[in-house]
Amino acid sequence: VSIYLLMNLQLIFIFMLILSSLLNLFFYMRMIIPFFFINLKFFTWNNIFMNKNIYMNMNLIILIILIYMYM
User: Fold this and answer.
1) CA dihedral in degrees (55, 53, 56, 40; nearest 10)?
2) DSSP conformation class of 42
3) Backbone phi, psi, residue 43, to 5°
């Protein structure tokens, strides 16, 4: 049962990682190709970088929690 639980946690973590990396990619693309987005003028560069940092921090927190649960 515990092994199954750990596998589930791992799957959830991998899913979160993929999701956040896709979001990071999205924000990066917003910086690179601004003409794809009409509402880019409402987004500041700082906001984009802040969002990227938030997603990276979320990853780090999830990783720490998972490591702590494995211990």
Assistant:
1) 50
2) G
3) -105, 125
Domain residue spans in the chain? 2-70
User: What residues contact residue 49 under an 8 Å CB cut-off, 6+ apart?
Assistant: none
**Is a pLDDT exceeding 80 seen at residue 58?**
no
| Cα separation of the two ends of the chain | 17
Kindly report whether the global pTM for this prediction surpasses the value 0.70. Answer: no
Q: What is the DSSP letter of 34?
A: G
Q: What is the pLDDT of residues 12-54, one digit of tens each?
A: 888 887 777 777 777 666 665 555 555 555 555 555 555 566 6
